[in-house]
Specification:
The structure is a single chain. By secondary structure, the chain is α+β, with helices and mostly antiparallel strands. The protein is 45% helix and 15% strand. Strands 1, 2, 3, 4 and 5 form a 5-stranded antiparallel sheet that branches. The structure holds flavin mononucleotide.
């Protein structure tokens, strides 16, 4: 796997934000998106090198379908009366180009718990931590390509329908959804707590 150089790591990390205003007018090729997602999955670490992360990339009609499923699922929970805000949010995600679904392979987590009973309680925690690492790497990689993404959590509400629609193994646990696309509006500045209060150095 060779990577074409785009934004450098620090610039991409700094410029990665939650982009909610996105559209489908993406210049990055399908192949490139596949390449960066596969690259991220291959090189992001996991506890015991267990490689529990599973990603599904939805574009085109599949992406639209995901947000239709989410909209209809939420409508049942929220009710029609109070739905306008939620509908707008769903429309804004659907307006994007694609969504990365992040899963964790529970069968591996379970097998590790059996193999290493001493760490049994830790494996689900490490699985979530590794999932978070994958999310940041993909989020930053999309930023490096000039795309904007956000991180959403409509699991577990949508899990059954998503698994049925894309024939996904029961042992894959959905942990996050990352809609992405071409940013259509700048993001607001964000406030930073003093880094000196958050990082200590000793020697
Ligand atoms: C673990 C985690 C969970 C998050 N969950 C959500 C979410 O469910 N919905 C959402 O819109 N943003 C979510 N976010 C995005 C954060 O709100 C956002 O990253 C934070 O406010 C900083 O803003 P920035 O992403 O623009 O830098 C999540 C971020 C993290 C790291």
């Amino acid at each position: 796997m060779t990577m074409v150089k785009t934004k450098d790591f620090y610039t991409a990390l700094q410029e990665r934000r939650s982009y909610y205003a996105i559209n489908k007018d993406v210049q990055v090729s399908e192949e490139r998106i596949r390449e960066i997602v596969e690259f991220a999955v291959k090189y992001t670490p996991s506890a015991f090198n267990s490689q529990t992360a599973r990603l599904v990339v939805l574009t085109g009609e599949a992406h639209n379908k995901l947000w239709d499923i989410t909209t209809e699922t939420l409508r049942k929970v929220v009710g029609d009366g109070d739905f306008e805000g939620t509908q707008q949010k769903m429309d804004s995600f659907k307006a994007g180009y694609g969504t990365v679904l992040f899963f964790e392979e529970e069968a591996i987590v379970k097998s590790l718990q059996e193999q290493f009973p001493l760490y049994a309680d830790n494996f689900p925690v490490w699985s979530e931590q590794a999932a978070g690492m994958h999310q940041l790497v993909v989020w930053t990689a999309l930023e490096a390509e000039g795309l904007g993404a956000s991180l959403q959590h409509y699991n577990p509400l949508i899990d059954d329908e998503v698994k049925k629609e894309w024939n996904i193994s029961d042992s894959w646990k959905l942990v996050a959804q990352m809609p992405f696309g071409q940013p259509t509006a700048p993001v607001k500045e964000k406030e930073f707590k003093p880094v000196e209060d958050r990082v200590l150095f000793f020697k």
